[in-house]
Amino acid sequence: MLKEWHRVLKPGGKALFTDPVVITGLVSNEELAARSSIGYFLFAPPGVNERLIQAAGFELVRQEDVTQNAAAVSKGWYDARAEDRDALVQIEGEEGFAGLQRFFSTVHHLTSQRRLSRFAYMVEK
To answer: CA-to-CA distance for 12 and 44, rounded, in angstroms?
Structure first.
């Protein structure tokens, strides 16, 4: 993906992206399955994104740990959805509702315990 940005950005151009699945602690296979249940994810240890940024020909301008935001947002989504459970079950079905609740709960637990982290990266061409 970063190589594609190289074609889009002009010299001096900047891009911002986040990686919500940097493994920063012990994570079980059940937790990884729940965390990735909504789509395709590549889980990586710290340092991989930084190496890929450099290999793609970009300069890392800024990196910020935004894990606490992920913990707060996932908890907020979980709680808000719980309040509207009946209406959401009608739309999503019981299984769909439970699956998304499991996702948000897992994200909250992993991020609040700093076992899975979210980092924001600003890169420049």
So the answer is: 28
